[in-house]
Design goal:
Length: 159
């Protein structure tokens, strides 16, 4: 079983720059490709650096959220500032969260690994809790020994 905990979190807000994912949510390869193209674009055009410059901490959020029947993906940071480039202020509710920890060689590999563990292993096998929607996020928290480490945060309810 994957390395996870259930944690109580205060509500928090992430300012995000986003894109709509056109692939079906079950098309893992398609959504992953769209996310890679998106992250590459915001790195190249400077929007990612602009976003990081206003962050209140070093965490980088890769947020997935259904908005108006569209699957959205955001690069986000915790901040008290707004930006014209930002497309959404994402509210995460106070409550219980599934927290999955991991490390990988790249931010994309970390996000993919954490997502796979959370949605492919932990949630399908969970007997006492469930994900019922709302934003979820892979959080890049830092680097150690050449690897990027972080967590997946998914709001849950008790069954």
């Amino acid at each position: 079983m994957a390395n996870y905990t259930l944690e109580e979190k205060e509500s928090f807000t992430v300012l995000g720059i986003g894109t709509e994912l056109k692939s079906d949510y079950t098309d893992y390869a398609g959504t992953n490709k769209e996310k890679l193209v998106f992250w590459s674009a915001i790195k190249q055009d400077g929007r990612l650096d602009t976003l990081k410059a206003i962050a209140t901490n070093d965490y980088m959020f890769a947020v997935n959220e259904a908005v108006n029947h569209k699957m959205m993906h955001y690069a986000g940071v915790m901040t008290d500032t707004t930006l014209p480039e930002a497309s959404r202020v994402i509210q995460f509710p106070k409550g219980k969260y599934l927290v999955v920890k991991g490390e990988a060689e790249t931010a994309n590999a970390l996000s993919n690994m954490l997502t796979s563990m959370a949605f492919g292993q932990i949630l399908p096998e969970a007997k006492d809790f469930a994900y019922v929607g709302g934003p979820n996020t892979a959080v890049e928290m830092g680097q150690s020994n050449g690897l990027i480490f972080g967590e997946m945060w998914i709001p849950i309810v008790r069954k």
